[in-house]
């Protein structure tokens, strides 16, 4: 809110350069918020595909969680007015990579009732395989 008041003040003074700097800052803050939101859903998505892979099974709850995470990631990534996406595939993959450590930590508590340390679980499922599967699920339209 402070930035908007500052922007108003700069516009009233006719300071276009200062106003544009505030607009750029607001734009960056908005994009960061979207990326953080996508990362949160990516953690949930990864947790459940890690559990599926490690336990060689699935549950209806995991399936629904995966579908909902995919839908939310797609929705958050879509630019409403201008079309396109906030994160192209390469940046989306980087966001998944950032989410992966948190996902493997959380999944290690749930897979086989916490039997594995995160490092052991990662060896069991394979980081790259999990990231590729998540990307494929997100990018494939149903």
Molecular structure report:
- With 142 residues, this protein is mainly alpha-helical.
- It has one domain (36-139).
- It contains six helices and no strands.
- It is elongated and about 65 Å long.
- The model has no long low-confidence stretch (mean pLDDT 93).
Short description:
Helix content is 80%, strand content 0%. With 142 residues, the chain is mostly helical.
Provide tags for this entry.
elongated; 142 residues; 6 helices; mainly alpha
Helix content, binned percent: over 70%
Name the shape in a single word.
elongated
Could you say how many structural domains there are in total?
Answer: 1
What order do the helices and strands follow?
HHHHHH
Structural class designation: mainly alpha
Count up the helices. 6
Percent strand equals under 5%
Alpha-carbon distance between the termini?
Answer: 39 Å
Cα-based radius of gyration, to the nearest Å = 19 Å
Largest sheet: none
Question: Overall mean pLDDT score?
Answer: 93
Number of strands: 0
Query: What is the subunit organization of this protein?
Result: single chain
Extract low-pLDDT stretches.
none
Give the secondary structure arrangement, pairings included.
Blueprint lengths: L1 H12 L2 H40 L4 H18 L11 H22 L7 H8 L1 H13 L3
Helix pairs in contact: 1-2, 2-3, 2-4, 2-6, 4-5, 4-6
């Amino acid at each position: 809110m402070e930035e908007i008041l500052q922007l108003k003040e700069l516009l009233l003074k006719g300071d276009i350069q200062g106003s544009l700097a505030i607009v750029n800052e607001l734009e960056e803050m908005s994009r960061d918020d979207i990326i953080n939101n996508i990362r949160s859903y990516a953690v949930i998505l990864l947790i459940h595909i890690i559990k599926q892979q490690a336990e060689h099974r699935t549950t209806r709850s995991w399936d629904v969680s995966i579908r909902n995470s995919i839908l939310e990631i797609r929705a958050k990534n879509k630019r409403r007015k201008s079309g396109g996406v906030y994160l192209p595939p390469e940046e989306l993959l980087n966001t998944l990579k950032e989410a992966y450590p948190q996902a493997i930590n959380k999944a290690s508590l749930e897979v086989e009732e916490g039997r594995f340390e995160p490092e052991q679980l990662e060896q069991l499922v394979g980081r790259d395989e999990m990231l590729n599967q998540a990307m494929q699920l997100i990018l494939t339209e149903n």
